[in-house]
Amino acid sequence: MKFRRSERLIDMTNYLLDHPRQLVPLTFFAERYSSAKSSISEDLAIVKETFEQRGIGTLQTVPGAAGGVKFFVKVSQEEAKPFVDELCELIGNADRLLPGGYLYLTDILGDPQVVQQAGRIIASAYADAKIDVVMTVATKGIPLAYAVASQLNVPVVIVRRDNKVTEGPTVSINYVSGSTKRIQTMVLSKKSMKQNSRVLIVDDFMKAGGTVMGMISMLEEFNSHLAGIAVLVEAEKIQERLVDEYLSLVQLSDVDVKEKKIKVESGNYLNKWRG
After folding, report:
1. In whole angstroms, what is the distance from residue 53 CA to residue 55 CA?
2. Is the CB of residue 137 less than 8 Å from the CB of residue 185?
3. pTM for the full model?
4. How far apart are CA 154 and CA 222, in angstroms?
5. What is the domain range of residue 172?
6. Where are the alpha helices (DSSP H) in 26-183?
7. Contact 149, 209 (CB under 8 A)
8. Do strands 68-73 and 261-266 pair parallel, antiparallel, or not at all (unpaired)?
9. Considering only 20-24, 111-115, 135-139, 256-260, which range has the smallest mean pLDDT?
10. Per residue in 66-89, pLDDT tens?
């Protein structure tokens, strides 16, 4: 079956978006559309130009007989800023205040469009990094972790607070909570991650960073390495931050329970990472 160029471009675009960071040989597309490699190369040039103009991402060409193309998500600053501003407005709604100064974020973390876009932005910052696994802790950070992992084309590893029979043999560590200073426990299945993995830690909220430090300690048990840390929301007024290098989309500057006011600002993403 012979495909028209318009059909090839649509199908090719969809395939590349569904397989980020995966090397796709030109012969694959040539056989898929019964087209010459020269025609495929021209099509890919159009897709690459459109991706970059629209701030979707870019295509990297790998030369040689075993070469091909790879799609990398790249979110431009022009696209990221309005989303982060909207996120600040959503989180800054005083109705989110719960007793004890906690914030209700479940609806945001349950919104597919919000989570997918946040995942694209975070993945964009690490698109060129060597990452084998995205790690998070159960349970609220899971949707965001999967959104990031889908754009990086890597699996998700979930650290839990307690043992599950279905997890099989586990590794357990104790860590000190950064905010409460209490000793906590986290466990991870031995089958969930290979040794010497490069790990991106993703979480929904970070206060002092005790949980993140716990996950970093867990990496040592697997002889694995930290590739980066990214959070949706960080709390600003923390006396002792345990984590130095991280990415945040939103910064929670102040919470006044009595006045029912929440001050929210953009996180460090727009300044530290360039899409």
Report:
1. 6
2. no
3. 0.92
4. 17
5. 77-272
6. 26-33, 37-53, 77-91, 106-109, 112-125, 142-152
7. no
8. unpaired
9. 256-260
10. 789 999 999 988 889 999 999 999
Axis crossing angle, helix 26-33 with helix 37-53, rounded to the nearest 10: 110
225, 196 contact by CB (below 8 A):
yes
| pLDDT tens per residue across span 112-141 | 999 999 999 999 999 999 999 999 999 899
Would you list the DSSP string of 230-261? EEEEEES--SS-S--S-EEEEEEEEEETTTTE
Phi, psi at residue 96, to the nearest 5°?
-80, -15
Domain identity same for 126 and 44 = no
Ramachandran category for residue 195: left, alpha or beta (phi over 0 → left; psi -120 to 50 → alpha): beta
| CATH value at residue 239 | 3.40.50.2020
Shared-domain flag, residues 108 and 190: yes
